[in-house]
Amino acid sequence: DLFVTFTGIDQNTQQAVPTAADTIAVTTVPRTALSTAASVTDPPEAMDNTVTIGTTFTVTATVANAPGAAGIASPGTLTITLPTGYTLAGTETAAKPFDIATGVSWQVIAPPQPAGPQLIRINITGTPPDENSGQPAQVIDGSESIAIVTEGSAVSVRDASQALGIDVGPVPAGTSDIQMLGFEIAYNVSDPSVSDARIDTIAVTIVGDDGSPLGPGTVAATLSHLAIDIGGAAPYEVVDPATNPIVVSFMSGPTAERLIAPDAARNAVVSVSLDPNPSATELSVGLRTGALVVRDAGSGQRLGVTDSQGQPLNGVITSDPLVVLSAQFAEYVHNYPNPFRAGSQETRIAYTMETAGSVSVRVFDLAGDLVFEENIPAGDPRTQPGPRETTWDGRNGKGDVVRNGVYVCVLNAGGQTAKFRIAVAK
To answer: What is the pTM of this model?
Structure first.
């Protein structure tokens, strides 16, 4: 208690003025004493400081004060510092204001490949004033670190083109529904109590002959259609795509057909249709990091996606090149490989059929002698409309391997005839 007493003399009478007194109760408290604590608070499976590649998680920090100590007159500032590879989500800012005992949170995106342990640091970078003295508050522990580990994802993608029978070969301009790439999406979780994984979107990157993504304008002038079949009632498609990557959404389809149960997998097949006069004459389709948005069907939390080795998808899941040739019959007909090794290798003779009809293939030497002949009757799959192929193994009608050199192939398909050269090199 502080005691204040007033005494005085009346200036006229010179008599003492009656004494007046008051008591002020003053409490003395310790200075503000701040300390910081931080942890991963969401999703629950990341609270052990282990996160999945590419996923978003929440870091929350709280500033505490010593019991009974003075408060702060205004908010201070907390700043988060992330290790290499980690980024803040959306419009998050590294520095945020804080009040005592009130959590401050940041949304953080894990790197696209396994990493760690690495340290996420949170520091008091703006010291608030003590509410009583106005002086900077006392900071006992202004820094906190979280040792974070990023692991490979539970969802993996592997190229399944060969297993699905996808064989990308030259096609004429204007060809529709060309299967380019097949891949398997696996949910590598053995616990049956875990929610299914749900495919929301897949983004396909169109790559040119130099290995670089094509510009959106080139894509628009090359493709009339892109579709992805994940085994549902119908493929999901984008008509007249004009972006790169091309994002295919499965959100409008039945949920059941885009779910993957724990320890199960689903195949996806990418098909394209070409414009009649495409801008690009060679292209591939592929998946890049972040191409698949797959979520936990129960919580909606996004799951990380890698290749089968736990690495980013970039450059790993990419189709063979699609070579686009002229739609004119005589310009399109060709063989590949050319030259080829007769007797140990086949050459594929490619042609187009406008309508169904018989096909004949005749191979002559340069002297004009018939070396090989094949007649394919109408009704054979090789005589149906569209781009077709047959093969020659480099043997003559007697089964003998022909000599090295140049031969002339005359092909008649559906009433159209073309002549081209085939080179043999053993």
So the answer is: 0.58
